[in-house]
Request: fold
Amino acid sequence: MRKLIVITLVLAGLWAGYWWVGASGAERAFVQWFDDRGAEGWVAEYDELNVRGFPNRFDTVISGLSLADPETGLAWDAEEFQILALSYQPNHVIAVWPGVQRLSNPEQKIDITADDLKGSLVVDPAPNLPLTRATFVIENMSLASSAGWNAHLDSGQLATRLTDVDTNTHEVFFEAKNLIPASGFVQRLGPDSVLPPVFEGVTVKANIGFSAPWDRFAIERARPQPRHLDLSLLTAKWGEMDVKMGGMLEIDAAGIPTGEIAIKANNWRQMIAVAETTGAIAPEFVSTLTGALQFVAGLSGGRESLDVTLGFSGGYVTLGPIPIGRAPVLKIR
Reply:
């Protein structure tokens, strides 16, 4: 019995030593990360940083957090941010965002509140900590902008899983339910709009290849950029408007896409009316676009539904056989 007690005490002491070394190392690493960002010209400040959770957890809690990237102008302020991990599995972390935080860019400040906003992330235990898989969940999130608009989301989920290390390809799933769009957008629709106040939902399933791994350098240096998009499904529904999309794009270093996206849309005339009312389409272009889409809809055998392909080539977009303008630049800031 005495030997058993001695062995137990020795093992407990070894584990306590392991936890102390691990916790101290984690705290030093986080402090050094903030110091390095400050040396690079970032705003990288916090009021308090602690690692706790003995004996089975390394829970890092950072309070009074302020981060700002001088290159992009993006800034983030949070009352508290938590990075939670089991001490015997430190490469799997739970990130917990606070109930109140602020995201800023040079144009506006957005105050974000949420009942639940957290993510589960698994990284490869390599020096650059490349992301292997992650899941983020959102519950009851509201946004209020200094530009004068408000928005709300009942629930959302984003999941990603690395499928090919060589091409940095991630399988991505995104779902948002019951979105109340930005108030300024809704007001532009006018009181006679037949659209309901709540956007029912969006679902996206895709494989995306990036220019670099999503690792710690993605925050410290530059965001990886999309190079290949295999969109297996995008669905969106708002009232009687219903859209489904799928296709494949190659994206060059300038963010210019090449490829095709198939679109099936119901109630396309209402979509044009919404685009005109909100200023997305110039009034003088509405009749031309309506006539073109009416022609395309006739080719697919319907009057109120579209079954057509968006083509991307040479920096321009075509809708079926009809040129409609310059292609969007697909870049992550």
Remarks:
- The CA atoms of residues 151 and 256 lie 30 Å apart.
- The longest helix spans residues 2-39.
- The chain has five helices and 17 strands.
- The radius of gyration is 25 Å.
